[in-house]
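Progress note, sequence design subtask.
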């Protein structure tokens, strides 16, 4: 494995290796000295064309815990915003000797293009509405930690699938790992190509909840929408929001997950967000271990 561009590129063994490696590295987080010398002398560049404090910080922490040098290359206010192309930026990073480039870009496919132009490993930290592989991996890691398995789990992914990069990555990954995925959303928030995805589709959250082991709520991405996708916030919440009453209809062991940031009162009520069955803060902690594992495997930890 040289790059991590899409969860669709991972077979079951590769995906399991990443999760198993993350489990081992998670134990380092409990030690007083959290650093490993594994990637000393390696350089990881965080190339973020879109703001994402959570993902960028998580990758930065992961790289530093493995003793890599980290360069944060923010595209805001740099030569990039003066019109430098992705290719020119790639050649600059190449000249700096970047061993790994973590990229987030608003254009779907940007990570794949970058991978053609640099010798180092490229990690896709979100490209457009296309994919976000490490988020899908850390979610799978969290499910496996909490429920002990992925094989046969029934996972519902609920909400704004159309604008979500997590949804596609999760469907591909979870299906590879033996889970059964159902997308739940209003028809207006599903991509045209959804019939080609390896999952079920439902428009009825209440029908799906009682038979779900995990419910992954997606943020309603208001910033990518014009008001036409659903009649009103109230209407959306009534049909697709998870509140205490709906939580009560889920099996006792079932988890509620959210890639963050949560819009409380819209896709998730405060009561559910603060309940012990909601794994959001755990997902953030697991994200560091998972991204350490990916950096370790790609940049040649032995």
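Output:
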């Amino acid at each position: 494995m040289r790059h991590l561009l899409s969860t669709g590129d991972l077979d079951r063994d590769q995906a399991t290796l990443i999760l198993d490696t993350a489990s081992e590295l998670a134990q380092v987080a409990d030690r007083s000295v959290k650093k490993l010398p594994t990637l000393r002398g390696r350089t990881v560049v965080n190339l973020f064309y879109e703001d994402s404090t959570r993902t960028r910080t998580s990758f930065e922490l992961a790289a530093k815990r493995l003793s890599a040098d980290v360069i944060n290359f923010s595209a805001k206010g740099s030569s990039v915003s003066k019109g430098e192309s992705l290719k020119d930026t790639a050649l600059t990073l190449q000249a700096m000797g970047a061993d790994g480039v973590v990229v987030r870009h608003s254009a779907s496919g940007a990570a794949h293009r970058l991978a053609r132009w640099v010798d180092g490993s490229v990690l896709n930290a979100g490209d457009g509405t296309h994919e976000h592989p490490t988020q899908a991996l850390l979610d799978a890691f969290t499910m496996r930690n909490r429920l002990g398995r992925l094989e046969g789990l029934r996972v519902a992914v609920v909400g704004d699938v159309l604008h979500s990069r997590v949804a596609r990555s999760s469907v591909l990954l979870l299906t590879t790992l033996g889970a059964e995925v159902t997308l739940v959303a209003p028809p207006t928030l599903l991509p045209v190509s959804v019939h080609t995805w390896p999952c079920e589709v439902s428009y009825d959250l209440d029908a799906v909840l009682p038979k779900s082991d995990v419910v992954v709520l997606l943020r309603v991405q208001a910033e990518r929408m014009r008001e036409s996708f659903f009649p009103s916030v109230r209407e959306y919440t009534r049909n697709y929001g998870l509140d205490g009453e709906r939580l009560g209809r889920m099996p006792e062991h079932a988890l509620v997950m959210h890639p963050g940031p949560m819009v409380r009162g819209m896709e998730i009520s405060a009561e559910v967000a603060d309940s012990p069955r909601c794994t959001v803060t755990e997902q953030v902690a697991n994200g560091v271990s998972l991204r350490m594992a990916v950096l370790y495997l790609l940049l040649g930890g032995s």
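The chain has a mean pLDDT of 93. Work on this subtask will continue into the next period as scheduled.
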